[in-house]
C-alpha cells in the first residue's frame, strides 16, 4: 500500500516537472532578442514597449550613423583594471578585429547619442526591430532607457532550469578554474573563496562588499534612473515612465499625474492578474479558436491553389486565343503575298517576251518573212494584238502589285494597355451615405453612392438595427442582400426610435467595407397623410394650391400693395388660411412640411375645425386681439374660460427664422422671446387624447416648442400666410418614384 502511494506521488511530481519544463521551453520565444536571435543580455526597455540587448541596440545605432560608447566596458569590475588583476588571472582576450574597428569608428568614449559630424546634440531615432517603427530616444539616446531587470531575472531562471548542472566558474583563477562560491554585486564578478579574500582584503573599502550567490549576470539591487542614477520612487501616468525624486521636480513633469511606484505596482499587478486569470479561464475558447485558425489555414491553402489554377487557365485561354488570332492574321498576309507574287511573275513573263531574243520577237520576225498575203494576214492579226499589249505595257509601265504591306500593320496599344491593367478584381470601396437625400418619415429612405474611383458593385447589402440604450446587449442586425441600385426603403419601423444603418457593396471579388454608420430618428407618432383642402375657405386671389394639393404659395400681388398702403392709415393686413382635408378625432399623429426660407410670415399648426370655419367666415387681421394664433387662448372669451386650452396652436416662421415666443402675441415685443434658424423641415405632432401639440426640427427631431390645444372636437392641420410665402407637405417615402427596393421582413443577422 505504501509503495503504491509512493509511486503515485512520484508520478505526480514527474508530471509537474514535465509541465514546468514544457512551459519554460515554450516561454523561450519571449526571451529571444529580435536582433541577435539569442537570449537577452542586459535588455533595455524601449518606449514602444519592446526589448533589445544593450550591445545589439548600440550596434544598430552605429549602423545608422550614431556614435555609441562600448556597452561591454565595466570600469567597476576588478577584471578591467590591470593593477587589481590577480596573478592567477590570464590577460583578457583581444577583441575581434571587426568589433574593434566598429567600436573605434563609433567614437569610443563618447556618450550614446552623438551622430557623426553633428556639432549640436540631436534627437536620436531608433529603428525598433520588433515593430519596425522609428522610436524617439531623445538627445541622450540609449542613456535614457531603463534596464529591464525583471526580464534579466526571468532569463537567468530559465537558464538555470534548462541547464541545472552547469556550474559557475571563478573569473580570476588560472586554469584549471575553480567553481565560484561567491559573487559581488559591486565588483560584478564571481569568485572562489580564495579569490574573494584576495580581492576583498581586510581594512579596505572592498571588505565592506556584501557577498551574494555566484551568477553570470550582475544587476543593481533596484531600478535606477538612467539620467540621475537615483532609485526610482514614482510613476508618471502622463509620460507612462518611472521617475526618481529629481525627475519629479523637473519642468518636463510639471502638471503631470504622478503617483507613488507602490500604487502603480498594485494597479498594474491587479490588472495583469485579472487579464491572466481571464486567459487561463478561457483555455477552451483558445483551443477552439486555434482549431478554427488551423481550419482557416487549410482552406487558405486549398483556395490559394484553386485561385492559382483558375488564373493559369484564364491566362492559357488568352494565350490560346492570341495564338489562334496570330495564325489567322499570318494566313491573311500569306494569301495576299502569294496573290501579289503571281501577278508580278506574270508581268515579268510578259516583259521577258519583249526581249530581242525572246520567242515572241523571233516569231514576229519570221511572220514578216511570209510573202503569201492571205496567210500573212491570218498570222499577223493574232500577233499584232499581242504586240499592242506589249507596247502599251512598255509605255505605261507600273508593277502589277505593290511591295508594301503597310496596311497589314496592327495597332495593339489598346490591347497592351488592357494587358498592362490586367489585375485582380477589387471589392467595392465603402459606400458614402448621401445625408442630403436620406431621411426618416413614414419609412426610412436610404440613399448612397460609391466613391469616384471605386470598383463597381453588382449589388449591395443594407443592414440596420434599432439602438436601445436601456437594453443590456446590442440588438441583432437586420439585413437584406442583393439590393440593386443605390437607394432603398426600410419599413416596419418603430416610432420614436433611433436606427443605425450601414451599406456594403459586393462584386466578384467579394464584399467591400461597410459605409460609416448613419443614425436616423423615426417620427414620434404614426405619419398622417393628407392633402391641402382646395374646396372651401381659402382666398383664391392670394393663395395658389398645386395640382397634387401638397404645396401652397401665397401670391399677394396688387391686393398686398393696397394693404401695405392702408397700413399707413391704421388699416389691417389680412391673414390667409388654408387647412388640411382631414380632421383628427383620436390618437397621436405626426406630419411634416417644408417652409420656403424667403417667406415673409408663415404659421403652421392645428386648430379646432369649428373655430377654423368661423375664421373663414370672419377673416382675421394682424392687430386684432380676438383670435391671435399665438395668444394661447380666445381673448374674447369669458373669464371662466381663461384657463381653458386655446382653440389654435401655431408656430410662427418668418424670414428664415422661427419665433419661440412662449405664447406671446404676434405683435408683442417680449424681450424673453427668441428666434432659432429655420430647419429644412418642420414636424408637427398632435396628441389628441392629451390635448397637446409639439413642434420639431424634422431632421434631427429636436423639440422646438409644445403647448396645449383644445381637442373637444375634430382638429385640422392649418397653415396661415401673411404676405408672400410658400410651403409644401412632406411626401411619403412610400410614394417616392425613385425607390429601387423595399426592405422589410429581414432575416436576423448575428
Automatic annotation (TrEMBL):
Protein name per the record: Tripartite motif-containing protein 46
COS domain boundaries: 368-425
Location of the region described as Disordered in the Swiss-Prot/TrEMBL record: 72-97
Residues covered by the B30.2/SPRY domain: 510-738
Keyword set includes Zinc: yes
Key word Zinc-finger present: yes
Ranges for domain Fibronectin type-III: 427-525
Species of the source: Apteryx mantelli (North Island brown kiwi)
Subcellular location: Cytoplasm, Cytoskeleton
